[in-house]
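Table 4 source record.
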Amino acid sequence: MSDTFLEVIEVHTYYGDSHVLQGATLRAARGKVTAVLGRNGVGKTTLCRTLTGLTPSRRGRVVIDGVDVTQLPPHRISDAGISLVPQGRRIFPSLTVDENLRIAARPSASDGWSVDRAYALFPRLAERRLNGGAELSGGEQQMLAIARALVANPKLLVMDEPTEGLAPAMVAEVGRLIRQLREEGISVLLVEQNTAFAVDVSDVTHVMHQGTIVHSCDAAVLWKDEEIKSQYLGVPGKS
């Protein structure tokens, strides 16, 4: 079995005439946390949408666990094992917490992610299971978005800006969860603007700029690279 679970190979994605992903290439290892970092507007969310089939690429290839899914519709890509935690949560506001989870749940082995296990992970959701999505706080909505992705029992969890707008305590909780998923063998592709958070929880980092990957390295190495952090991530160098 290959250590590589996801391959993105020279992918070009457009919105109309706007060329957003310009030959993006990266690999994500099985059972590891792979971070994609970059400033606003460099194509990170478009990468997530391309991987999940929401905005298909015009050129290039996306390979999941050895299967080319480049031109498959989103539901077929989901069947292949990818689940998305979208930026902005995108829960169903008119459905209850329980309904949001149950419409996304998929059968799994006995040790997989069930709705009950999601409630055990996020007790606050269990307490509010009959509340509508629109009644939840921002942190609770993020819990629900993550839980909804997990009950689909993915092999690769794609997380688009999961810490955006969260209080520090909730950011720490998201970090704890990502580490737990890695321990359970779930591959995570973390798309983040919070460099310190991403470096702390990831194994490998890719830096995106103008629709392509310009730098790749181990997370610990990136944190020591003052030039890359300053030039591409807006992290001030040491004075």
